[in-house]
Amino acid sequence: MNNYYTIKILHKEIHKRLENSVFESAFSGNRNTLTLCFLKGEEELRFVLSFDKGIVAGFLTEHSKEPKSNVAFFFEELENVTLKSVTQLAGERAFIFQFDTSVSLYLSLFGSVPNAYLVRDEIIEATFKQEKKWKGKPIHDVFPMFVAKDKLPTSPKDAVLIEEPKLPRHFVDELIHYAGEDLSLSDWQNKAKEWVAELENNPVPRLLADHRFTLFSEKSLPIETKLSFDSVNEGIRRSWFIIVNEGRLKAEKDNWMARLQQRLRYLESLIEQASGKEKQEKQAEIWQNYGHLLMSQPNPNQKQKNIRVFDYFDKQTEITIPLKEDLTLIENANRFYKRSVSAKKSIEILERQAQSAQENLAEIKPVLLGLAACSRYQQFVDWKKQFSSQLETFTAHKQQVNDTEGFGSFTIDGYEIWMGKNAKSNDIILQKAHKEDLWFHARGVGGSHVLVRMRKQKENPPKWFMEKIASLAAWHSQAKGSSMVPVQVARRKYLRKPKGADAGLVLVDKEEVLLVKPDRLQ
Fold it and tell me: Are 128 and 36 in contact (CB under 8 A)?
């Protein structure tokens, strides 16, 4: 959408609408989009500039609203100043907005960092991006003179681009392919002139099925058309929104898909754990029988390493019961009773968790199916509304401090998170953690231990989630004021506490490091 001929035709469509309008403001709701606001009589006009490297574009619209929050304003000295003219910078993919003062706005729509420059007497006074780099420098540094080198063509593509270097390069190979002719190099140069004449005199603005915008007709570029437009400006405007929403859909859909699939795996693991309860029930029964057998011995106060007894619970076969030799038989019996009771309670908990998991599984499957069916962004928005109650678990960041344990316990995106409040609670977290839990800590500085409860799962969460938790650990560390912080990530099984070490101190045997920006994740 930012090739030379698209911008050339766009200029023809917009300059009359914008000239003699009054500049109201320039605002941005994010770092890659700038909106210039003008008033012409009673008509409000907005010129939107997308400086995202993957989708550089500019278009005129009447429907752009100022965001209610996170808004930055630019070029305030232009407020209430009249725009005299809009021109295309000669030979460049750029516009010049000339005001009735000595100030101009240069809008470059090319390069690795497209930008807007406020210029007075050929010197840059302010920019939308990279102000430290450009402020005080001449505008000619941004638009250096291009000197063509003499070159003889050696291929059809060379011939086309030497003759017409401003043809959109990303279409040249396809144009040559679809031309389907065996031409001489000089004939390909003539063909290039024909394509330029088509762009300038008979443009056909359309969005292709593969989400590329072009001015070539289907005759020259026989690729399926997704949408056709009446004007270049309208084509750029609508295509930009479609492409932005398609990109947003993919990012957000992938994000939610990863969250829901992780939750699905977690629920399935709970059900799988409960399916092995027969083995646990058998073990609980064995421990209980050990207790009974020990209590029936004639010398219950004796201490020994193990004991050989007849098991009258199993056809009176002889068995050996392992004992703690510093405990009496009665004390060992009580130890086995406690283990039996604990095992039975664990079975009850597993059964309840499995029942709840079955119910949650029945709820989450239609949510996943609905998400998979979203092919447009509006469908995704409707999906979030339809399943808002089921998705609440994944959006809640409420923190509930467990006073008895001394550390924070809360959920983020469906994962249970533990976070230490001090060195002592950092140790408590490690003592209670499962070996597969993920541990996060800012490297080389003091800070909270942050733990992601993995429920025996050995597969890491998605990368975006790992970086989110690393940012949280960085924020709750002595390095929170740094722009970027290295954060250690390790499974609990790779941490060890040296004997006599200070509270909160651990050694890490195997880790990875994430470099992140500190974020409190409110």
Answer: no
